[in-house]
Amino acid sequence: LMLDLISGGEMFDHLIKGGAYSEADAARLVREVASALSFIHGIGIVHVDLKPENLMLSTKNREDAVIKLVDFGCAEVLSLEGDKDAVTTSTIAYSPPEVLLYHHGVPRGVIHSSFDMWSMGVILYVMLLGHHPFDWDGMASDEEIRHRIITEPRLPFEHVDLTSRLSPSAIDLLKKLLNPNAKARISAYEMLQHPWVKGETARNSVMSGSDERLSKFRVFRSAVAAKVFKDFMAWSDCDDDGKDGGYEKALGLFERAFSTFDTTKKGFISTGDLSRLAAKSGPDAEPDS
């Protein structure tokens, strides 16, 4: 079995480490994603879990890298009618309102190729503005994001400071991708014909301030990950008696990891818990006991 060598890492990491793309850079990358989506949609497959983590770059050189669409674990094969009941384990932050409504008991959600196009709109929004459209500060829970997508799916683009710096063509594409009406949402094939995606109207300048916002998010994300990893390694060393602890040891490590977040034993993890953990993740921080 031979597979492609993908050495460039996740596009999500490139967004965080390298700062925001210019419109022209984003257009080139988005064009490749749209081409891949047009192909899989044409053969009746919906990815269903499109997000930056599942868009890999073929090389570490961002200018020359080719986008690879990966992780088809949630993918759905459409029926001859072109849709399927919306029973999915997709990532809430990139799921369209019609599917989230279905999970709230509204019997009208279906999986359709338009699902991926909404996800593409969220990704493009992050690429250009450095924020998730329904999680502006990066601290919302899945349930909060779900509620915002369901109750306020139509984003304000006019008279907004950040979006006012985008080209009219970029805003037009975002509106067509993030259209709450699934039937009116732009298709992958139509997206390939859009002048912004073709590079005809995309600006070359990077969105002012996006680098700083992405950098702050990177610091927070890395701090939480570093703290959890450091504690995991410390606990593992302490528990290692030279034998295979098996299920019990693994369960104990996960329980300790959860308790690192949930110090008050609420039974769930809040945004405040995340902030506290990030603040404790300095180089001299000790694992919680």
UniProtKB/TrEMBL annotation:
GO terms for molecular function: ATP binding; calcium ion binding; protein serine/threonine kinase activity. Keywords: ATP-binding, Kinase, Nucleotide-binding, Serine/threonine-protein kinase, Transferase. Its cofactor is Mg(2+). Residues 1-197 form the Protein kinase domain. Residues 249-284 form the EF-hand domain. InterPro entries: CDPK_Ser/Thr_kinases, EF_hand_dom, Kinase-like_dom_sf, Prot_kinase_dom, Ser/Thr_kinase_AS. Belongs to the protein kinase superfamily. Ser/Thr protein kinase family. CDPK subfamily. This is Calmodulin. It comes from Helicotheca tamesis.
